[in-house]
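Good morning,

Attaching, inline, the backbone tokens for the sequence recovery test we're adding to the shared suite. The designed sequence is right after.
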């Protein structure tokens, strides 16, 4: 075999896997379509280190998020990666949202995550700009620089002799009995095969396409794209000290338009959740949707005017559910006695879970 492990995709998941496996002395190759690492979903997200409040207790999302959160903070500390464990408020603004806060608190507690229930005046003391009848405070939620995290993983992987092939697409991986034959295509259109004992599909938005090309049935691996647009909110630097989230949307589409802080002290609103019926990488932020950001943020933030809100950026989530379907978990689809592992539906909290997911997968072999 040419390699022990071949990985498709150099986003945060592929990089975490490469770092973890190469640390064990395995010979690892990473194949990436783009000219550099971290050009996909991993560079277009909220950069929040989630605590693990929302996911069903036994789900992979809950387990990998709650173990991934402290692992990520430890990694950031030892590797000098910009991060801040700033904490987050989930705020109730309507009487009927109080019960939802109680439900979230109970779910978090079942998952081993401690939250604090705050009164309206306690919220005001912590965040004078926030209006809330009550709130939940999550002390372990924070922010991280996704780029610096990926750069650190990439550097270590390189030091540990991982081979990266950029501008190269994995067309398919075929199980051959003793391992896999990986068919790749270079930028000039030339195609070539190489072999690996194990193959891991960490191709983000295209993981389902690659899984199907490698022989998996569409109905088991299909994902649906949900765009999330962000808007910049022109508040003075450090005007907010915590991340501020509304009570999640009932339609299971997302966590609601929340206010996140950048490591640089800037403030952003978003993401919204727009179903993309065609799989097109559309990253435009439509100015016509800015009033909905204003309306959402004004429910829980004082003094927000429309002129403070301008288009920022967008990302796309590969969700396993279509509109109206129940929320689905991450899928770790192992085939051919784990010779191939396909990672499907790696939406939020994939960034938080990245190190824990890599450790979990390395434990499968
Ligand atoms: C709007 C939004 C907000 C989010 N917010 C958060 C958050 O606050 N906290 C959190 O924990 N998570 C968050 N997430 C989720 C998190 O960003 C993702 O789970 C994570 O980045 C997924 O990483 P990945 O490596 O799987 O995908 P990617 O980063 O997309 O990497 C996959 C790579 O595979 C490459 N590729 C594709 N096809 C092929 C092929 N055939 N051959 C070779 N390479 C290929 C792509 O070019 C890409 O570089 C958010 C996601 C979105 C969209």
């Amino acid at each position: 075999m040419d390699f022990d492990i071949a990985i498709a995709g150099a986003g945060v998941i592929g990089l975490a896997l490469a770092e973890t496996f190469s640390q064990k002395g395995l010979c690892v190759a990473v194949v990436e379509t783009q000219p550099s690492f971290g050009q996909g979903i991993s560079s277009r997200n909220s950069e929040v280190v989630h605590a693990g409040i929302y996911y069903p207790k036994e789900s992979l999302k809950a387990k990998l998020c709650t173990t991934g959160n402290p692992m990520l903070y430890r990694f950031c500390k030892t590797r000098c990666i910009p991060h801040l464990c700033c904490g987050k408020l989930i705020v109730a603004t309507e009487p009927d949202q109080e019960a939802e806060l109680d439900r979230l608190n109970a779910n978090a507690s079942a998952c081993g995550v401690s939250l604090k229930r705050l009164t309206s005046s306690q919220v005001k003391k912590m965040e004078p700009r926030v209006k809330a009848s009550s709130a939940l405070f999550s002390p372990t939620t924070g922010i991280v620089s996704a780029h610096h995290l990926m750069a650190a993983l990439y550097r270590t992987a390189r030091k540990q002799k991982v081979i990266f092939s950029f501008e190269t697409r994995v067309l398919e991986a075929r199980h051959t009995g003793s391992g896999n034959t990986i068919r790749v295509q270079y930028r000039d259109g030339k195609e070539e095969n190489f072999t690996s004992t194990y193959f891991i599909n960490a191709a983000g938005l295209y993981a389902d396409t690659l899984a199907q090309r490698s022989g998996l049935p569409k109905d088991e691996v299909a994902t649906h794209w949900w765009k999330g647009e962000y808007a910049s909110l022109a508040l003075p630097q450090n005007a907010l000290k915590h991340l501020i989230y509304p009570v999640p949307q009932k339609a299971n589409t997302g966590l609601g338009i929340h206010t996140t802080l950048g490591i640089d002290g800037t403030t952003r609103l978003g993401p919204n959740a727009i179903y993309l019926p065609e799989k097109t990488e559309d990253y435009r932020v439509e100015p016509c949707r800015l009033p909905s950001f204003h309306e959402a943020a004004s429910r829980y933030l004082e003094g927000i005017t429309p002129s403070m809100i301008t288009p920022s950026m967008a990302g796309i989530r590969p969700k396993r559910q279509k509109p109206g379907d129940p929320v689905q978990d991450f899928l770790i689809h192992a085939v051919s006695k784990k010779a191939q592992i396909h990672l499907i539906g790696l939406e939020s909290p994939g960034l938080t879970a990245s190190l824990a997911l890599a450790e979990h997968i390395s434990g499968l072999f």
